[in-house]
Design goal:
There is one protein chain. The chain contains three helices and 18 strands. The chain is mainly beta. The chain has three domains: 125 residues, no CATH class; 126 residues, no CATH class; 31 residues, no CATH class. The strands form four sheets. Strands 3-4-2-1-7-8-9-6-5 form a nine-stranded mixed β-sheet, with no helix packed on it. It has a five-stranded antiparallel β-sheet with strand order 11-10-18-16-17. A hairpin with a 2-residue loop joins strand 3 and strand 4. The termini are far apart.
Length: 299
């Protein structure tokens, strides 16, 4: 049987087929990978919604941007950001079979294969979801719906100048100056007539109009990006204290333009002084140091 396999991670997509020749479906070309296969797809219940997709390791699993799918898993870091969907070719017509996410990658050096264990989206209903914690620090993740901060307002563009594993350096790109009302600022230049002469108002003063945008290169204090985020190609990577990435950002290269956003240590002090967001702070700073129900006699 012939199948079409679509993997994606952020904005990066890979299209493969186990057919002998490339297959075009929905204006997308699926490239042949000899030996590509997957285990039987069960639909009897949520507990049977796992499959294994096996690739012959020697093949370069490249997409149109020359990014290798295997590189995402090569360090055997636990990724759940890779999605997959599978179509069966029935008389040349693709029929939807499976959609889910990659849970665990496995490499078999003896058989020279890479196997991706995938779970369907229905299996998410089995997952245990934690409720909000009662703690001193804020339980929210920065920029989520509870935190309320808009990442677009807080992030800035930068050009990557070096990458070495999880370490990277960057230069901040110029941004347009805004006034106190948040409106962009432009240079004021005189309005000219057809003779390149200034147009005057009723007081014989030149009429000024917007010219080139006023640009600036902002600077940020040390530690500003601690526990922040790097965003590129639809993928967010968490930044450690010190500014290094928690794990290598897939496809990140020198001269890439990325967005960087500051982080939060979940304390009320940082929430207030750095972001002025203390009204949304979700922690409970006045929790007693000891359990009063066991350490005190309540009369």
């Amino acid at each position: 049987m012939k199948f079409l396999y679509h993997f994606w991670h952020g904005d990066q997509h890979w299209y493969f087929t186990n057919a002998r020749k490339a297959v075009t479906f929905d204006d997308v070309v699926y490239y042949p990978i000899r030996g590509l296969q997957h285990s039987k797809i069960e639909d009897a219940g949520i507990e049977k919604c796992d499959i294994d997709v096996t690739f012959p390791q020697p093949h370069l699993l490249l997409n149109e941007n020359e990014h290798n799918l295997a590189q995402i898993f090569i360090n055997k870091i636990y990724y759940q950001g890779v999605k997959v969907e599978i179509f069966e070719l029935d008389d040349g017509v693709p029929l939807f079979n499976f959609r889910g996410r990659v849970v665990v990658p496995a490499f078999d050096e003896d058989n020279d294969t890479m196997t991706l264990n995938c779970s369907s989206h229905e299996s998410d209903f089995k997952r245990t979801i934690f409720t909000q914690k009662f703690q001193r620090t804020c339980p929210y993740s920065i920029y989520d719906m509870f935190c309320g901060l808009d990442i677009e307002e807080w992030s800035f563009e930068a050009r990557i100048t070096s990458v070495n594993g999880t370490a990277f350096s960057y230069e901040v790109l110029p941004t347009q100056v805004v006034d106190e009302d948040g409106d962009p600022v432009f240079e004021q230049v005189p309005l000219l007539d057809e003779n390149d002469e200034p147009v005057l108002d009723e007081d014989d003063k030149p009429i000024m109009v917007d010219g080139d945008p006023v640009m600036e290169v902002k600077t940020y204090p040390s530690g500003y990006l601690n526990q922040g985020l790097l965003f590129k190609d639809g993928i967010y990577t968490w930044l450690r204290d010190g500014g290094n990435m928690y794990r290598p950002h897939f496809g990140l290269a020198v001269n890439d333009i990325v967005k960087l956003a500051p982080g939060c240590d979940q304390s009320r002090k940082t929430c207030h002084e750095k972001f002025d967001n203390h009204k949304r702070f979700g922690g409970h700073i006045n929790i007693p140091n000891e359990d009063v129900t066991t350490s005190q006699i309540i009369k």
